[in-house]
Amino acid sequence: MFSISIQQKQYKTYILTHETANSQLEVVPERGGIITRWRLQEQEILYLDAERFANPELSVRGGIPILFPICGNLPENTYTYKGKHYTLKQHGFARDLPWQVTDQVTQDAVILSLTLNSNEQTQAVYPFDFQLIFNYRIQGNTLEIQQKYTNLSLEAMPFCFGFHPYFFTQDKTQLQFEIPTQEYQDQRSKKIHSFAGQFDFNQDEIDVAFKQPASQSASVIDNSRKLQLTLEYDNIFSTLVFWTLKGKDFYCLEPWSAPRNAINTGEHLTVLQPGATCTANVRILAKFF
Question: Can you supply a Gene Ontology BP term from the record (predicted)?
Answer without folding.
Answer: carbohydrate metabolic process
